[in-house]
Automatic annotation (TrEMBL):
One Pfam assignment: Glycos_transf_1
Domain Glycosyl transferase family: 165-331
Name of protein: Glycosyltransferase family 4 protein
Signal peptide coordinates: none
InterPro entries named among the record's database cross-references: Glyco_trans_1 (IPR001296), Glycosyltransferase_grp1 (IPR050194)
Source lineage: Bacteria, Bacillati, Bacillota, Bacilli, Bacillales
Domain of life (superkingdom): Bacteria
Length: 360
């Protein structure tokens, strides 16, 4: 069997998802390829997976005809979906949604693309996230739906012990964009540093992506809150090293703070949990699949900075609760989000689709 997974560019959660599921399938002797419309820094993370970067119809058409894939998963990019269909692909074509930003944005996007997806796709795939389930049901009814959790690399990605830092670290992962809600993180971080002046803020992301105007606003906020000497930005850290950084944050007495408005899954939060790095996060839809308040992490109401600071202090000062959360979180991710569970669900999806003739 041969599968192709496509997305706009190798970055963020989608780069992680594609890499993890390809390696999982390869262990089952399923050949997997990746296709991105644009190149990106995340491509450095990809090893031993045939990866193509192209966006013109002729090249994509030749690839489809040459490789003879059994099934293709197209994430978000409806133009790519139609290009592959136009190329004469004869296998099953699956349209995937992992997250589309805020609820308003997601609704507008799905309303715009629904007719074209229904025309070309044989099925739709998305994670078990309530707002996505509702939107997909509303806009893409009439074709098979498949809804199951994304995988993590629970075998190779995890906690490592390092000499603990002599200061607490509060981490944040994401692009400088509205849905990631970076302003709220800076406000929370500033308040936490007032209580722990020896601490530091670590931000992880891809500085090659994002809106220059948004970055200008970000710089003004950093200067206005006087965080210049307390904030360290890490850009495009190799993915296998992120586990080390999460482990260090966890052992420092700090935590990962996630301030997103809405998440389809939330890879950064789940991976931090896997690395025994406690998490304080907004009560964001996709996060609820794996984060239970005071059991596997801490939740706060988005916009309530005071509540976030109280919960952050609890994570840092209540040693018994902190240790319990770290232990529970790692165990929870390993039990419920393994790549083996994902491949089983995915193969069941293909088996179900095999009983239906692909659209031509």
């Amino acid at each position: 069997m041969k599968l192709l997974f496509t997305f706009f560019n190798p970055s963020g959660g989608m780069e992680t998802l594609n890499r993890i599921r390809c390696h999982a399938f390869m262990k089952m002797d399923v050949e997997c390829h990746l296709l991105y419309s644009l190149d990106g820094e995340g491509r450095k993370n990809i090893k031993d997976i045939p990866t193509f970067v192209m966006n013109d119809e002729a090249s994509i058409g030749k690839l489809i005809q040459r490789q003879n894939y059994d099934a293709i998963v197209v994430c978000t990019d409806v133009t790519m979906l139609l290009t592959i269909k136009k190329a004469g692909f004869k296998g099953h074509l699956i349209f995937e949604i992992q997250g589309l930003g805020t609820l308003q944005t997601a609704s507008a996007v799905l309303k715009d693309i629904s007719a074209r997806v229904l025309q070309a796709a044989d099925g739709v795939l998305y994670p078990q996230t309530s707002h996505l389930q509702e939107l997909m049901t509303a806009y893409l009814h009439g074709i098979p739906h498949f809804c199951f959790d994304d995988p993590l690399d629970t075998e190779c990605f995890g906690y490592s012990s390092y000499p603990p830092k002599p200061f607490p670290i509060i981490g944040w992962v994401g692009r400088i964009e509205a849905n990631k809600n970076w302003r709220e993180f800076l406000l929370i971080g500033s308040r936490m540093l007032q209580k722990h002046p020896e601490g530091y803020l670590w931000i992880f992301g891809d500085t090659t992506l994002g809106d220059p105007a948004e970055k200008e606003h970000y710089d003004r906020w950093v200067n206005g809150l006087q965080l210049q000497h307390k904030l360290i930005v890490y850009s495009n850290i190799p993915h296998e090293q992120i586990a080390d950084y999460f482990s260090v944050i966890g052992d420092s007495g700090g935590f990962l703070c996630s301030t997103s408005i809405l998440e389809g899954f939330g890879y950064a939060v789940a991976e931090a949990m896997l690395c025994r790095c406690p998490v304080l996060t907004t009560d964001s839809d996709g996060i609820r699949r794996f984060l239970i308040h005071d059991v596997t992490g801490k939740l706060y109401a988005r916009g309530n900075v005071n509540q976030a600071v109280v919960q952050g202090e609890s994570l840092m000062k209540d040693t018994t609760l902190r240790n319990t959360i770290r232990k529970n979180a790692e165990k929870h991710i390993k039990q419920h989000f393994s790549s083996e569970k994902y491949t089983t669900n995915f193969m069941n999806m293909l088996k179900s689709l095999s009983q239906r003739k692909p659209k031509y």
